[in-house]
Structures are given as structure tokens and as C-alpha cells.
Amino acid sequence: TPEPSIRRKPRLSQFDRPEREAIMKRWALSTLSLLITPAVTNAVTGKGPTGVHPINDRYLAVVDSSIDSILIVDGNAAGAVVGHLVLHDRNNDPSDADAHIGGHEPLSSWINPISISTCDECKHLFITSPDTMYRVALERPLAIMAQNHDFSALNTKSTVREFWPNNWSQKYKGDGLLRMVSVAPDGSSAYVSHSKGGVFSFDPLEPVETSEKAKHAIHVGDAGIDEQEINGIHHTHSLKNLVLTSSKYVHIVKLKDDTGVNPLDDGSVTAYRLPLDYHCDYLYGGNKMTFMDTVIINDYAFVLGHPIERGIHNGVALYRLTWDEDQEQWHDCVQVAGSGVEAADWVDGTGKEARFSMTPHDIALLPSMTSHTIVVADVDNRALRYVDVTGAVETGDQTQGVSVTSVAYNEDLFMVLYKKEEPWTTLSPETVMKTDGKSYYHSGEKGIMNLNYEDAQEECSRVGIGRICTLPEIRARFARGQYPTVS
User: Fold this and answer.
1) Quick check: bond before 423 cis, omega within 30?
2) Tally of CB atoms within 10 A around 61
3) In the predicted model, what is the mean pLDDT of residues 441-457?
4) Three-state SS sequence of 395-409
5) Whole-number Å distance between alpha carbons of 133 and 178
């Protein structure tokens, strides 16, 4: 597909090649996530982890709309929550937690976050809701907190304020169409997507309303970006490009020219348009598809989407497209994880055997020197899903080796935060996780045991539980050095 603004095919060097520094260590605890049978939907508001920002290869910042909070999740400890911040005024907590769960009481005073991002040196977190944007002032950057393994200041010394720069038109504020935020790790740029308005920029290192760096950077119609449903937005690993995902296309927007200058700063938009429906709909007999987000790893674009059948869709799937340097174009859309047509579900496993909910819209790359993993914020399953695509990237043809595992961090967190009676009032997300043994979850001398449903049932019966163990019970046992029996 030719680059719309200059009518020629772009060279690969114009776009991102993140090399092999992008993504995570393989999560060694993947098999244990298969021991639970969680509910598919969120009984509180039908929401959950709507946005995820990997701080490093261990810690992730998550915004969860079901509890209106930021959570710091330890991926090396099977989902231990090691830090949190409630985003709304605590005077606006639900007056009756049980009634809220049972009756879906609307809480209009809550922020309703949908995405989160920051940079390594930023002293602010940036969060979007459908109506506006927020900045969370931090005592020190999240990257520093992660280095020190101490996120206590997040809850005690952070403040949340609405952030809408003067140069952003007021007509887009409050219309329910604001989408995702992406901040360059070095703080050199930051952008917010709007479904019908395009892309807005701001300065993440000095986020003030009067900043001249805050502007309407990309209008719908610029460089062939003419879709009306822009959603996903990510900086590429090289920071040379910005990846926009609409319902039918991926637009790769140039952020650095040959001299290192960002063309968007001067109002010049150059973009490569990748038609996703054109490449991928053959997978479903030509049925129309829709897409939510995209990340690029080396010569591969991984896209989150699903087919549309009779206006109804089921669980999402992940697709891979390949860059052909000789032909200078993308090709070969392959389904690598999830179904896209079967009912939304929560199933870990290999590639197409895995199942997701129908509501994820944000994916991210977990930084690692040794492997490649995509993190899916699986909203209605109230979990993070790790999709290991190392084989699909390193070998190019081993798409069957893709595996999906879960980081099921959200266990009773709504009750912990909002139930106004004992024992809930004495707990916090962090203390609950310590009690459950999540903080020091490890495999023991002989490694992780791969237990199927029957084996897990037998193991739990052996220790007197008489049913399938919950993840907290398993984690607590492991923390005490009690490991599954070999037999």
C-alpha cells in the first residue's frame, strides 16, 4: 500500500524495527493459572483492566475501571498487587458495596479510566477516560519505584487532577470519544487518540495547560488517516514512529525524519496505511472484521481484533502480519491466538485454543532481552493475559508455538477497597496479596508441576481442601514451601 502523503511505498528503514530488545522473560508460573475456573464477566460493572503500562519486565501499571484504581501488578509473583491508588475522592465510594455489586449502581463521580502511560523520568502518570484526561502527580517516577521495589508512595503521596491543555479544542472534551494515551519512554513526546478527532500531543515532562507542545497534532484526513474510529496508539520501540489503529486500518506515522526532527512538531504528517480487513478477512470467509490495537516487533505487526457476524462478535483474537522488505509491503495475516468467533471465555493454552473476553482494547509489549511477550488487558475476565510470541518472531513460522497464560490479580479487590465492615476495613490490596503468599511465589527444587484438572482436584483433596484450590491458596502454600506432590 503506497504511503498516502507521498504516493510511493515506504522503505523499511523509515519505520520501526525494534530489534530483539522488546519483551519479557517467559512467565514460569503459566501452568498454574489453569487450575481455576473464573467467571467470564465482571459482575460489578462489566469492566476490569482497561489499560496496561509495563514499567519494566516485572512490574505493570494497570487501570481497572471496576474499582476505579491504578494497580501495580508484580508479574513475577503471579499477579501480586504491590501498589495502588484509588482515582476518585474517597467520599464518593459506594455507600453499600453489596448493593453496588448486585444492582450495578451507577457511580458518575468515578473517573472510569481506559488507558495509562508514563515515561521513565516522568513525575506524572497520564490516564484517559472517555470524556477527558488526567495527570497523576507522583513523588518520584514509577521507574524509580520499580528499581527500589517500593510503590508505597503511590497511595500516600500522589494527587489526581484533570488535564486538558488550552490548545486542545473544548468541543472534544466530554464527548465520550477520547481513547488511548502513549508516552515515549524517554519523554520526548506524548499523544492521545480521539475516535473522531485524530491525535493530540502534550509534553509529558512538563504537563501544564499552557504548554506550546500541546496541540492538535493529527487531524482526521491528514495523510490518508480518514477513519472515524481511531482507538489504539503506541510509540514504536525505536521512537521513530507512532502506530495508530482504527477499526479497519493501521497507520504508521513518522515521528523522526532523517535529521531526527519530529515532523508532527511542524504540522507535517507522513503515514503508511495498512488495510487490515483486506489482509485478514479471508480467515473468516470474507466476513467483515474490526480491530482495536497493534504493536510491532521486528518485521511483524501483531493486531488485536475479531470478525463481525450479524453485528455481534465474540471473544477477540490476535493476528500477525509480516513485512516483506523486498516488496516493501505487509502480507500474510495469520491468526496466532484466540478464536474470534467462539464465545467469549477465559481459557489459557496454545495459540488458537486460548480464549479471551469480548472487550479487550489495549495491548502492550513487556520489555525483555530474551523473549517476546504481548500483554493483553482482558477486561471482562479481570486479568492480564501474557501472549508469548517468541517463536512466532524468532523463527517466523512457528505460530503454533504461541502460548497464552494469565496473571489473575483481581481477587476480592472491590470488597477490600469498598466494603465497610470487618474484616474488609482492615485490609488493603497489598496486605491481602501478602497474606495470600503472592509476593514470593516460586517453584521449589523440582520446578513447577504441570497439573491438569483431575490432578489439581486430587492435590487439593490430599491437603484437606476437598475442591479445586484457588490461586491464593496455591500461592500461600508455595510461599510456605508446600509444593505439589510428584505423583
Assistant:
1) yes
2) 25
3) 49
4) CCCCHHHCEEEEECC
5) 8
